[in-house]
Prior knowledge:
By secondary structure, the protein is of the alpha/beta class. The chain has helices at 3-25, 31-42, 56-59, 63-67, 82-87, 89-93, 106-110, 115-132, 160-176, 208-220; strands spanning 50-54, 72-76, 99-103, 137-141, 180-182.
Amino acid sequence: MGTSKIFLGFVLMILCLQSKAQKIDSNYHNYLYDNRVAYFKQLPVVKGAIIFFGDSITQWGDWSEFTGFKKVLNRGIAGDNSFGLRARIDEVLRHMPSKLFILIGTNDLNIKNAATTVVDNYKKIVREVKTVSPRTQIFIQSVLPINNDLIGRQYYTSTNEEICQLNTELKRLAVTERLTYIDIYPLLLDKQAQLDAKYTYDGLHLSGIGYLKWVDYLKEKKYL
Length: 224
C-alpha cells in the first residue's frame, strides 16, 4: 500500500472516531439543557450550598422542601447524561458547595454509553471539584432501579442488570477516590427486585414517597 493510501486511511479513521465522539458528546445538548444552564447562571451565588446534581430524577425532587434546609440547590436537568454534567460543572463550583450529591448514568445507559465512559466522566468531574473546591464533600449516589412492568420501553431500553453493573463500577470509583458511595438502589426494590410501584409512577421516575424514602436514608446516615 502506498504512503498516500496509508495517510488517507489514517485521516478517515480519525474522522470516524471524531464523529462517534461528537455523537456521544452532543446528546445532552438540547433546548431544555441550554436554557436551564443559562437560567442557573443568572441565579445568585449561594456559598456553601448543598447541591443535588443530575438528570430528571434530580430535577423533579423538591430537595429544599424534602430536607428542610434553605441552602439546598437543585441542579438537575431532565435528559442529561454524564457528558452534560461535565460541561456544566463550572456553574456548580461557583457556589463552592459544602456538599455535592451526584446522580447520573440513567440516560447514558439508555443511549448505550458504556459504563466505562460514565465512570471516566465521573472521574473528571470529581477531580475538578477536588481541584477547584477542595472542601466540598462529594457523594456518589447509585443509579436507581427501574420497574420492568411499568416502564415505557418505547423511550427507555436499559435494564436493572446494566444499572447494577454501572453501580458496581461507581462504587469502585468511590473507593479509589476516597469518596462516600450512597447505595440507594436496594432501598427502593420490591420482592421481585424491581423498583417498587409505590415509589414510582412510570417505572423510572420517583413518586413523593420515593423521594422521602431517599432523603430519610440520607438523614439516617448523617449525610445531610
